[in-house]
């Protein structure tokens, strides 16, 4: 057997783990990455990537429905759900294969099997061939998370789906209930609604997309409703009565319970960290509600043991996981590692219209004691948006009235998930309104609205 002593062992090959492994190898460390199921983790196999492939099919379908608006004719078009899903699985496969190539190129040792911590600096791995023992100075736990299953609302793979079933659906829903209106719930609601499912979304909090700025949530809700979705806020699914061909949901709103029949339910009520059977407690690692407690450098308090990505808590986003992966690899290699700035991590939802944001919402900024200046710019005032046939949307910016610091940016509309990065760079550089106003934005682009929103906050908007 090859020498099983490494500088760094990474458990889990999701966007946290595989990026940590590659960065560690780039810095000259001898790295092993252990994965029990699939390279690429949830993100590439069952999350970010396959959902975006499905949503692209829905987007093209929606555009075909609007062909006339563009002077085109598209008749007798339709969709083949199996083919849509096949494309999505193919995209996921292409990317996960890519991770295998990147590991080879960077000389990361890949070990397929279930890993468990076996004491400080020690890991045992159950593989198809038996148990392997590995050791390293540094171990990075990047085991991710899975769908939260509330009692009575558990997925059954037939009528009640978690995100995994919703990605490889056994049938096309006709009457769909989505429980939970966070990014995952709303993306599936958007996909199935666009393809013709009569869709109801139930959200326990007071608005859809509850982490977003209240104005953006309200705008998005109006668009979802226009597209035919039924949105129930401050509502709770208390019970699901399942039979072979239907599910009756007991939905409580304002103290009254309504019984509604659906043929399919998607439960999207959050995630829980994969903390079990890893040997974490035995080493004295602190766990808070299924997530490993870490400091800003992802250190667990146990010498040489780090936790990154979804298992280390919110925000549960691939880019947060990857950034933490780079940071711990640099720390382990003795480089000058930079902790992540939580206020600079953008969140994107790829529903129709798209939603993207970074930093504080207006309410949160006020709650934190800031006196704010707020700018808004609607898509209808932008030439490119009109040329694209996408006049519905808005960009909202929030500044500290005293210093001009950009506190937050919130967007809803076409392609905003691609635009938000402009503000993310600005926030990372701690930009102010003055620099953003001085910046020249190319014409005609949707990005010009990012400029106009800033100008609006300071009473200088041009195209409104
Ligand atoms: C439907 C859906 C859509 C999403 N869309 C987006 C999006 O658009 N953008 C975004 O940023 N995020 C999105 N996410 C979230 C994103 O997928 C996660 O934040 C990301 O995958 C977290 O990466 P990770 O490396 O921490 O963990 P994971 O990707 O969960 O990877 C963990 C890996 O560890 C392995 N593992 C676990 N235990 C062991 C063990 N004991 N031994 C060996 N291996 C083990 C698992 O098999 C898995 O491969 C989405 C999630 C879902 C479910």
TrEMBL record:
Its EC number is 1.8.1.4. One of its GO terms (molecular function) is dihydrolipoyl dehydrogenase (NADH) activity. Residues 6-325 form the FAD/NAD(P)-binding domain. Transmembrane segments: none annotated. The active site is a redox-active disulfide bond. The active site is at 443 (proton acceptor). It catalyses: N(6)-[(R)-dihydrolipoyl]-L-lysyl-[protein] + NAD(+) = N(6)-[(R)-lipoyl]-L-lysyl-[protein] + NADH + H(+). InterPro entries: Class-I_Pyr_Nuc-Dis_Oxidored, FAD/NAD-bd_sf, FAD/NAD-binding_dom, FAD/NAD-linked_Rdtase_dimer_sf, Lipoamide_DH, Pyr_nuc-diS_OxRdtase, Pyr_nucl-diS_OxRdtase_dimer, Pyr_OxRdtase_I_AS. It comes from Tropicimonas isoalkanivorans. This is Dihydrolipoyl dehydrogenase. NAD(+) binds at residues 180-187, 203, 270. Keywords: Cytoplasm, Disulfide bond, FAD, Flavoprotein, NAD, Nucleotide-binding, Oxidoreductase, Redox-active center. GO terms for cellular component: cytoplasm. It comes from the Bacteria. Pfam families: Pyr_redox_2, Pyr_redox_dim.
């Amino acid at each position: 057997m090859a020498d099983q002593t490494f500088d760094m062992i990474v458990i889990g090959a999701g966007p946290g783990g595989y990026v940590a492994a590659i960065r560690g190898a780039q810095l000259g460390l001898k790295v092993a990455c252990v994965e029990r199921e699939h390279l690429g983790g949830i993100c590439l196999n069952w999350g970010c990537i396959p959902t975006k492939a499905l949503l692209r099919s829905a987007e093209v379908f929606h555009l075909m429905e609007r062909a006339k608006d563009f002077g085109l004719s598209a008749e007798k078009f339709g969709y083949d759900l199996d083919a849509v899903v096949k494309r999505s699985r193919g995209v996921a496969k292409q990317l996960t294969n890519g991770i295998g190539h990147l590991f080879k190129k960077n000389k990361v040792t890949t070990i397929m099997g279930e890993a468990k911590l076996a004491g400080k600096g020690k890991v045992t791995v159950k593989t198809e061939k038996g148990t392997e023992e590995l050791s390293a100075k540094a171990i990075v736990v990047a085991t991710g998370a899975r769908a939260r299953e509330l009692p009575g609302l558990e997925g059954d793979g037939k009528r009640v789906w978690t995100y995994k079933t919703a990605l490889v659906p056994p049938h096309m829903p006709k009457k769909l209930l989505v429980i939970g209106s966070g990014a995952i719930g709303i993306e599936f609601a958007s996909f199935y609604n666009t393809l013709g499912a009569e869709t109801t979304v139930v959200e326990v909090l007071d608005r859809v997309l509850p982490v977003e700025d209240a104005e953006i949530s309200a705008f998005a809700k109006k668009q979802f409703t226009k597209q035919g979705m039924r949105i129930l806020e401050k509502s709770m699914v208390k019970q699901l009565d399942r039979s072979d061909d239907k599910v009756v949901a007991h939905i409580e709103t304002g103290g009254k319970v309504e019984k509604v029949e659906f043929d399919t339910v998607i439960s999207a009520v959050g995630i829980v960290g994969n903390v079990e059977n890893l040997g974490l407690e035995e080493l004295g690692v602190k766990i808070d509600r299924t997530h490993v407690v870490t400091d800003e450098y992802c250190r667990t308090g146990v010498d040489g043991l780090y936790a990154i990505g979804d298992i280390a808590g919110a925000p549960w986003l691939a880019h947060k996981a990857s950034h933490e992966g780079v940071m711990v690899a640099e720390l382990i290699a003795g480089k000058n590692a930079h902790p992540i700035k939580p206020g600079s991590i953008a969140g994107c939802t790829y529903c129709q219209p798209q939603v993207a944001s970074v930093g504080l919402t207006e309410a949160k900024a006020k709650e934190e004691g800031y006196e704010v200046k707020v700018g808004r710019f609607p898509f209808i005032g932008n030439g490119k948006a009109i040329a694209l046939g996408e006049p519905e949307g808005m960009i909202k910016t929030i500044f500290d009235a005293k210093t001009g610091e950009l506190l937050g940016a919130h967007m809803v509309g076409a392609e905003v998930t691609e635009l938000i990065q402009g503000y993310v760079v600005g926030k990372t550089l701690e930009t102010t309104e003055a620099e953003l106003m001085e910046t020249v934005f190319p014409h005609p682009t949707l990005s010009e609205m990012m400029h106009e929103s800033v100008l609006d906050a300071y009473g200088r908007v041009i195209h409104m």
